[in-house]
Amino acid sequence: MQTTRPRGRPRTFDRQAALDAAMELFWRHGYEGTSIADLTAAMGFTPPTLYAAFGSKEDLYREVIQHFLLRSERQRMEAALNQTSAYAMLRYYLYAAAESFTDPSTPAGCMVATAALQCAVENQPIVQEVARIRHQMFIGFVERLDVAKRNQELPETIDSLALANFYTAIVQGMSVQAIDGASSADLIAVADLALSAWPGEKSEGKSQKAKVQRDQDSGIRG
């Protein structure tokens, strides 16, 4: 059980930079693979300063996850959901994932897609928190597929939950493959094969590849 240390007055520091440093460690090594000593060294803190600023390792991890979501995953999902068709949404998201999972400026894979997969029983609240976040994003995908059915982009007989689960499994698999060393081209090939299984209208809307690149150039990564 992670204990919370008494709070004091932390020295002035750049919170965003500290969260970036912690995110790098948690992303690369996982929650249990990252120690307080690792965190204090990377963030330039003493243990009392870290506890005063963030409360506990668990509290810090929760804040790091939100930091990651705000700067990357939610932006990518929102950009995908704003595409002009369901197929364009899926294509945008898969291509963006292939690029960001292999971005050399960050650890491989997706922090949320593969976070906290192997945690001890005492750290199950962390597992549950990450699962809750993934579920929220999943529900957004399901709702978009339901809209596609109403708009006749997908057959009415399609099970939106099953289709969302299928493509979610593809994305999570792409994340694991990136961690194992797959290249962007490898993952785009996977994305193209997954797109070939799309059971509805394949309307791409406006130039999606170009828009993915523009969004990544503006900082939508991770």
From TrEMBL:
<feature type="DNA-binding region" description="H-T-H motif">
    <location>
        <begin position="35"/>
        <end position="54"/>
    </location>
</feature>
<dbReference type="InterPro" id="IPR036271">
    <property type="entry name" value="Tet_transcr_reg_TetR-rel_C_sf"/>
</dbReference>
<dbReference type="GO" id="GO:0003677">
    <property type="term" value="F:DNA binding"/>
</dbReference>
<feature type="domain" description="HTH tetR-type">
    <location>
        <begin position="12"/>
        <end position="72"/>
    </location>
</feature>
<feature type="compositionally biased region" description="Basic and acidic residues">
    <location>
        <begin position="201"/>
        <end position="222"/>
    </location>
</feature>
<keyword id="KW-0238">DNA-binding</keyword>
<feature type="region of interest" description="Disordered">
    <location>
        <begin position="200"/>
        <end position="222"/>
    </location>
</feature>
<dbReference type="Pfam" id="PF00440">
    <property type="entry name" value="TetR_N"/>
</dbReference>
<protein>
    <submittedName>
        <fullName>Transcriptional regulator, TetR family</fullName>
    </submittedName>
</protein>
<keyword id="KW-0804">Transcription</keyword>
<keyword id="KW-0805">Transcription regulation</keyword>
<dbReference type="InterPro" id="IPR001647">
    <property type="entry name" value="HTH_TetR"/>
</dbReference>
<dbReference type="InterPro" id="IPR009057">
    <property type="entry name" value="Homeodomain-like_sf"/>
</dbReference>
